[in-house]
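To the wet lab folks,

You asked to see what we're planning to order before we commit. Fair enough. Below is the target structure as tokens, and below that is the sequence we designed to fit it. If anything looks off to you, flag it before the synthesis order goes out.
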């Protein structure tokens, strides 16, 4: 059986409009994996509860596994990657970054780009506030749901 572009578009449209979070199809040499971004199509913005100090053993475990999660201030939010790709702070090489630590942003402000297969996907802040932390370096690979930027309330 041959899979056409129209077939692929139909499959992706059905998957995108469904509640499935991930879809994997293999038909002969054709393989398709689809991961649903959070509802709303944009980055996941996580409202953070007050930060609680971690126990000594939790700190040791995090250090041992090299996992360092940025601290989200009370009332703040974390902008997470809605897809796997490459993180870019600026619209093009040599241009100024979209935001810096301390920049004030609105919900519709573009804060970065994630490149996936040569397609540049602008990521919006999702809420207003001040940039408190940029957790990813320019040109770094990012994973789905990885914290990119932390916003504090203004």
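Sequence we intend to order:
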């Amino acid at each position: 059986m041959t899979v056409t572009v129209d077939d692929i578009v139909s499959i992706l449209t059905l998957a995108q409009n469904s509640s499935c979070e991930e879809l994997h199809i293999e038909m002969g040499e054709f393989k398709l994996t689809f991961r649903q971004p959070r509802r709303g199509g944009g980055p996941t913005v996580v409202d953070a509860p007050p930060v609680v100090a971690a126990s000594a053993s939790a700190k040791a475990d995090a250090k041992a596994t090299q996992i360092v999660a940025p601290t989200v201030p009370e009332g703040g939010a974390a902008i997470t990657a809605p897809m796997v790709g490459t993180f870019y702070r600026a619209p093009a090489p040599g241009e100024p970054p979209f935001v810096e630590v301390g920049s004030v942003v609105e919900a519709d402000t573009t804060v970065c780009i994630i490149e996936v297969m040569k397609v540049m996907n602008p990521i919006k802040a999702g809420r207003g506030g001040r940039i408190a932390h940029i957790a990813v370096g320019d040109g770094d690979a990012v994973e789905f749901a990885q914290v990119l930027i932390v916003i504090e309330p203004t």
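Structural context that might help your review: The chain has two domains: 5-35, 45-152. The two ends are 57 Å apart (CA to CA).

Thanks,
Computational group
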